[in-house]
Amino acid sequence: MANMDSVIQPPEARDGDEVGVRLKAVRKMHGWSQRELAKRAGVTNASISLVEQGRVSPSVGSLKKILDSIPMSLAEFFALELDDNPQVFFRADEMPDVGSGPIQYRLLAASNGNRAMSILLETYRPGQDTGHELLSHEGEEGGIVVSGQLEVTVGAEVALLGPGDGYYFTSRRPHRFRNPGDEDCVLVTANSPPSV
């Protein structure tokens, strides 16, 4: 195989070539042709084609070179769920309330167990908050207020946010959220890694 170290697969090994199937799925996820991926990786179009067909198996170094052009780590590549038709769009009734208290947390893509983040539509009724104790956990989080007001405490900093205002911080910093207004506060938030 030109420009890549490889091992020719015997015919009986070609049917289940996981690397080729995965590479094709990743390429299609990005909407790239074989030619585009080859150009980005600095290898020949034939090289990509042969790997995807399972006719050759690239060395770890060669595969890493291809994945670096995406960019994607070897671990991410082999952990990727190969669902040919993952759900992309979600209607309101497909976003369950995953909260256990009075605050509503509607989770986007709840059925996707391999989410790298949680995206939530949160609703705080007037006077509701996350509790007197400040929260602290691993990850990062951010949000944008859609309507109403939200008082956000992060460490010693406190801000009252209105529609269009937002926040973003490392979740290890102690934090708390409260609706001090007289109308519902609705916001869209994201946190990574996913908390729910």
Descriptive key words:
alpha+beta; Jelly Rolls; 3-stranded antiparallel beta sheet; 6 helices; 24% helix; 27% strand; elongated
Instruction: Identify the CATH architecture of the largest domain.
Output: Sandwich
> What share of the residues lie within helices?
10-25%
> What is the overall pLDDT average?
86
Largest sheet: 5 strands, antiparallel
Spatial shape? elongated
| Annotated CATH topology of the largest domain | Jelly Rolls
By CATH, the superfamily of the largest domain comes out as Jelly Rolls
Q: Give the C-level CATH assignment of the largest domain.
A: Mainly Beta
- Spans where pLDDT lies below 50 across 5 or more residues: 5-16
Number of alpha- plus pi-helical segments: 6
| Beta-strand content estimate | 25-35%
**How many structural domains in the coordinates?**
2
Structural class: alpha+beta
How many distinct beta strands? 10
The neighbouring-strand order within the major sheet is: 3-4-10-5-8
Furnish the topology, listing elements before pairings.
Blueprint: E1 6-8, H1 11-14, H2 18-29, H3 34-41, H4 45-52, E2 56-58, H5 60-68, H6 74-79, E3 104-107, E4 118-124, E5 140-147, E6 150-154, E7 157-161, E8 166-170, E9 175-178, E10 185-192
Antiparallel strand pairs: 1-2, 3-4, 4-10, 5-8, 5-10, 6-7, 6-9
Helix pairs in contact: 3-4, 3-5
Structural account:
With 196 residues, the protein is α+β, with helices and mostly antiparallel strands. It folds into two domains: 6-79, lambda repressor-like DNA-binding domains (434 Repressor (Amino-terminal Domain), Orthogonal Bundle), CATH 1.10.260; 92-192, Jelly Rolls (Sandwich). 24% of the residues lie in helices and 27% in strands. It is built from six helices and ten strands, in the order βααααβααββββββββ. The protein has helices spanning 11-14, 18-29, 34-41, 45-52, 60-68, 74-79, and strands at 6-8, 56-58, 104-107, 118-124, 140-147, 150-154, 157-161, 166-170, 175-178, 185-192. The protein has a five-stranded antiparallel beta sheet with strand order 3-4-10-5-8, with no helix packed on it. Strand 6 (150-154) and strand 7 (157-161) form a beta hairpin. Helix 3 packs across helix 4 (45-52) and helix 3 crosses helix 5. The relative contact order is 0.14. Mean pLDDT is 86; it is low at 5-16.
